[in-house]
Amino acid sequence: MQILNGKEASQSIKDALKLNVAQLLAEGKKVPHLAAILVGNNGASETYVAAKVKACEEVGFKSTLVRAEESITSLKLLDIIRDLNNDEDIDGILVQLPLPKHISEQEIINAIDPDKDVDGFHPSNVGRMVLGQPTFIPATPYGIMLLLEHYKVETKGKHAVVIGRSHIVGRPMSILLSGSGYPGNCTVTVCHSHTKNLEEICRSGDIIVAALGRPEFVTAEMVKEGAVVIDVGITRVVDPSKKSGFALKGDVDYKNVAPKCSFITPVPGGVGPMTIAALLKNTYHSCVKRNYD
Ligand SMILES: NC(=O)C1=CN([C@@H]2O[C@H](COP(=O)(O)OP(=O)(O)OC[C@H]3O[C@@H](n4cnc5c(N)ncnc54)[C@H](OP(=O)(O)O)[C@@H]3O)[C@@H](O)[C@H]2O)C=CC1
Ligand SMILES: Nc1nc(=O)c2c([nH]1)NC[C@@H]1CN(c3ccc(C(=O)N[C@@H](CCC(=O)O)C(=O)O)cc3)C=[N+]21
């Protein structure tokens, strides 16, 4: 069993980006600039956005955090996005999800300039991804592809089972794994809450991507010997023994599943850090494409 260490792989991506930034500076060019919009004060969202801003600093990008009250109207939020779209220095715009219920996420995403949509959530970028055209790939599935590549995990001809069909993880993951080229060329089964015989389907998976958000859902009985298991899920569960007061749980029963795997991602330290590294890569490419291509 080998651990797919997202902390390590993301560090090597960040090291490469640092060199890219140094090169831009040496050529007297501007550095990549990411704007993150955080609405309300959801604890998990605060943590993730803080981690993204910190990662920007680490590699020498500029970052701007725009905070808005939970009660902000759609119109006001659209104003913020319009200003960021028009700001020439900004290369990437990210609206941290989920948004408060009174705001339509799709309406907000549609307003982001697709050339600055480093999350890859805009319909034009989703369309480009489906067609296999160069575009911003959503950070979590992109990070998983980079992780598979980093560890040279074989994917060609494998049966990949993706649990979850969300627009930010499961759906794009299934499209990327079924695409041609490496890592891809898988035969993909997408599972969701209406899937029958999910256990049986999982057992036939050479690769399992668990992205449903149910702690320890994937048990040892659902995993075949030698499988590759990617655990996307992160759920905070109350744990008084922890300093923070909570523990992070993946969608996989790691202790019992890991011994059966050829490769597995831990939580934390697996997909999470790769998501951030992928976002930085998208932001760098946006900067180069917008300014210097
Ligand atoms: N590590 C990282 O970087 C990231 C981690 N995450 C984590 O990944 C998890 C999933 O996130 P996200 O995709 O946004 O979640 P969503 O809640 O948007 O989607 C969950 C998906 O799982 C399906 N599902 C739910 N319960 C079951 C079940 N019992 N059996 C089969 N399928 C089920 C749902 O089906 P249906 O469509 O039928 O409702 C849905 O398609 C969460 O824990 C989240 O915190 C998310 C983003 C990034
Ligand atoms: N517009 C938008 N884009 C996103 O990419 C996006 C989003 N909204 N909403 C929520 C999800 C979640 N997400 C994570 C990012 C990093 C970690 C991460 O770094 N996790 C660490 C642990 C962090 C901790 O301590 O909580 C790890 O797994 O090691 C996790 C989850 C991005 N998302």
TrEMBL record:
Ligand binding (NADP(+)): G164, R165, S166, I234
Enzyme Commission (EC) number: 1.5.1.5, 3.5.4.9
Any one cellular-component term (Gene Ontology): cytosol
Keyword field: Amino-acid biosynthesis, Histidine biosynthesis, Hydrolase, Methionine biosynthesis, Multifunctional enzyme, NADP, One-carbon metabolism, Oxidoreductase, Purine biosynthesis
Gene Ontology molecular-function annotations: methenyltetrahydrofolate cyclohydrolase activity; methylenetetrahydrofolate dehydrogenase (NADP+) activity
Recorded catalytic activity of this chain's protein: (6R)-5,10-methylene-5,6,7,8-tetrahydrofolate + NADP(+) = (6R)-5,10-methenyltetrahydrofolate + NADPH; (6R)-5,10-methenyltetrahydrofolate + H2O = (6R)-10-formyltetrahydrofolate + H(+)
CDD domains, per database record: NAD_bind_m-THF_DH_Cyclohyd (cd01080)
GO BP terms: L-histidine biosynthetic process; methionine biosynthetic process; purine nucleotide biosynthetic process; tetrahydrofolate interconversion
Domain (Tetrahydrofolate dehydrogenase/cyclohydrolase NAD(P)-binding) ranges: 138-288
Residue stretches making up the Tetrahydrofolate dehydrogenase/cyclohydrolase catalytic domain: 4-119
Record Gene3D superfamilies: Leucine Dehydrogenase, chain A, domain 1 (3.40.50.10860), NAD(P)-binding Rossmann-like Domain (3.40.50.720)
PROSITE patterns the UniProt entry points to: THF_DHG_CYH_2
Superkingdom field: Bacteria
Pathway named in the protein's UniProt entry: One-carbon metabolism; tetrahydrofolate interconversion
Function: Catalyzes the oxidation of 5,10-methylenetetrahydrofolate to 5,10-methenyltetrahydrofolate and then the hydrolysis of 5,10-methenyltetrahydrofolate to 10-formyltetrahydrofolate.
Subunit details: Homodimer.
Family from the record: Belongs to the tetrahydrofolate dehydrogenase/cyclohydrolase family.
Protein name in UniProt: Bifunctional protein FolD
Species of provenance: Paraflavisolibacter caeni
